[in-house]
Specification:
4 helices; 85 residues; mainly alpha
Length: 85
């Protein structure tokens, strides 16, 4: 049954164009993490972003943002201060 719904979503006239969006490379994952970390007034060293990006292979940009948000919640839950830049 789900196959019919999938076909209905991509039938002619539903969307004008279909785009393929790949997962980000390690370099792009590092940049995405940096954006979301710094957006929250936190800062890491470049090597930390690179290491995290390597560990997050297969993650989308939205998932990387949630990693940052989740880390903040976890840090606050165990009453740890998060270093600010």
């Amino acid at each position: 049954m789900s196959d019919l719904r999938d076909l209905e979503l991509i039938r002619n006239g539903r969307f004008d164009e279909i785009f393929f969006v790949d997962l980000p490379s390690a370099e792009v994952r590092s940049d995405i993490l940096k954006i979301h970390v710094e957006k929250r007034n936190l800062f890491l060293q470049d090597k930390d972003y690179q290491q995290l990006a390597g560990l997050a292979e297969g993650f989308s940009g939205a998932e990387l943002e949630q990693v940052v948000v989740s880390a903040l919640y976890s840090a606050h839950a165990v009453d740890r201060t998060v270093p600010a830049g």
